[in-house]
Amino acid sequence: MSSQTERTFIAIKPDGVQRGLVAKILARFEDRGFKLVAVKLLRPSQELLRQHYAEHVDKPFFPKMSAFMSSGPVLATVWEGKDAVRQGRVILGATNPLNSAPGTIRGDFAIDMGRNVCHGSDSVESAQREIALWFQPEELVEWTPAQAAWVYE
């Protein structure tokens, strides 16, 4: 793979888990050719959510968002591949599902912003910070998929 290989953090929020969309969402990333390097199911603590959404803590919507994100299990994942952060955002669709194109995760599975199924890192720097919040270094698995030669030049 090239120097554009990077990692991104994708979380399937409680609404996605409760609606049984986990397999469909994971398949979108696998089908595209991205490599899963970490996965865990957890109910995030308020402290983790305050750190993850640090830029939103003082905003009026934070308490409601934080309560929702801790209301049930979240599937935290790390994906690796060429341009993974930007491509991950494309696969997810616009933050507001009403602005998401059909064929994107949010365009196909969501209607309201407060129930938009997934979170995805918005920059390489954010991805690095979020991955470090949700995973210990030893939880990130280094491996080469057998299909890599069929996905990348």
Question: What's a concise summary of this model?
Answer:
The protein has helices at 14-18, 22-32, 46-52, 62-69, 84-92, 105-109, 124-134, 148-151, and strands at residues 5-12, 35-42, 74-82, 118-120. It has 153 residues and is of the alpha+beta class.
Structural description of this entry:
- ATP binds at residues 13, 61, 89, 95, 106, 116.
- Keywords: ATP-binding, Kinase, Nucleotide-binding, Transferase.
- It catalyses: a 2'-deoxyribonucleoside 5'-diphosphate + ATP = a 2'-deoxyribonucleoside 5'-triphosphate + ADP.
- By secondary structure, the chain is of the alpha+beta class.
- The chain has a single domain (7-136), classed as Nucleoside diphosphate kinase-like domain (Alpha-Beta Plaits), CATH 3.30.70.141.
- The protein has eight helices and four strands.
- It has helices spanning 14-18, 22-32, 46-52, 62-69, 84-92, 105-109, 124-134, 148-151, and strands at 5-12, 35-42, 74-82, 118-120.
- A four-stranded antiparallel beta sheet has the order 2-3-1-4, with helices on both faces.
- The mean pLDDT is 96.
Provide tags for this entry.
153 residues; alpha+beta; four-stranded antiparallel β-sheet; 8 helices; 39% helix; 18% strand
* Mean pLDDT over the full residue set: 96
The counted number of beta strands is 4
Percent range of helical residues: 25-40%
Order of strands, main sheet, comes to 2-3-1-4
Q: From the 3D structure, determine the CATH topology.
A: Alpha-Beta Plaits
Main sheet, how many strands, which sense, barrel?
Answer: 4 strands, antiparallel
Strand content: 15-25%
Give, in order, the helices and strands.
EHHEHHEHHEHH
